[in-house]
Amino acid sequence: MTFANAPAEERSAVPRVERVIGERSGTAPGPTLIVVGGVHGNEPAGVVAAERLLRAIDEGGGLRRGRFLALRGNTAALAVEAAEAWTRPRYFDHDLNRLFGEARREDGIEARERDELCAAVADAVRGSHGASVVLDLHTVSSPSPPFIAVEDALPARRFAMRFGLPLVLGIEEELSGLLMDFATRELSCVALTVEAGRHQDKSAARLHECVIRIALVELGMVDPDGVVGDEVSAQGELRAASSGRGRHVYDVRHRAVISDPRFSVLAGMEAFTPVRAGRTVIAEQGGRPVVAQESGLLFMPNRQHTHRVGDDAYFVVRRVGRVWLGLSAWLRSREWLHAALPRVLPGVRRCPRRTGGFLVAPEIASVFRRQIFHLLGYRLVRFTKPPRVNPLRRALGGTWLGVRAIGKMLAGLAHGGERGALPDERDADWVVRRRTLDREAEHAGAYD
Length: 448
Fold this sequence. Notes:
This protein has about 450 residues and is α/β, with parallel strands linked by helices. The protein is built from 15 helices and 18 strands. About 45% of the residues are buried.
């Protein structure tokens, strides 16, 4: 169904359900927890979980403090009648969870859904008397343990680890326009994307319910021993569903895109299946095999009923070690280090258009790749992915890049040094930006 080119009156006549599922306020001011379910029309589990929690809050005597707000995402797609709720369309014109970027589309049903949802979330965050957390509740199309995706700012990472689920970092660099990215970028609050298994799994709503319960307890909004705040039981259910991957941390290394609607994932290719670059066949597309472009673990292979060109085909992730995470946390909190980066790193200079941002000259900063900037707490806003090559060619190429970088630096001395040689932003420059919640120190302790 495509309504992007339909007259405005026809688009406005599309049936919709209510945006607000419900809200409750405590007897004392405090944090705000915003739950969004059904951003995709075929993912009803989050809406069901929110409805259950509202009833539980009422049965348990209400909130101790703060405000709980539950919202529906794509109200038009959720209004479509279907034999099974998970067989509804995901969206009409555009994937709603790709429309929350800085450059926004203005056409189609989902543009209206986005504007209304942004306004509702922003109003709730700005009216909060404490920390604000957004839980964006989803399900996936292939068998998968539940997991949390989060922008890798330290406050968000610390809060997400409390749920005992696998944690996936870096997805916002591969997918622009996520709801959680909007909430963090524009509203400076922690936002988690929670995936609770397959669309049709009856356990998905229960797992989302467990996540909401834990969030309410961790924010101090309910009594941990009350009807709503049975955190021990909720933690146990999430741990059992995590297939032994609880609190494991993964980094997204590759995203494959569907280029032909005749796409199908092969049998046995499920979440966290090991894949090898150039060897593992993951799917078929247009009658041809789709081979892994990166080694690691398969993540979110697309088994939707229908496929559109440009949709995600699959991702590849790799596990991140605890030592790396600890070192990253220590380095990010050293403010002097961030001040020194443009002075000590070759090819790195300040970006005047972006607060906390740097420009990176790829021909000079040949060794400062994606993982190094992640270690230091920087998000890659614009970058060029190196092509996949075998280890020998990678080593030879790295050596050549290093030699060339030294030559560029020496040549720059004749033009007033590096800053004189690279005075302005160029199209080829990478753009990196410090994570919002890491940069805004006043938020650092709000989620501890």
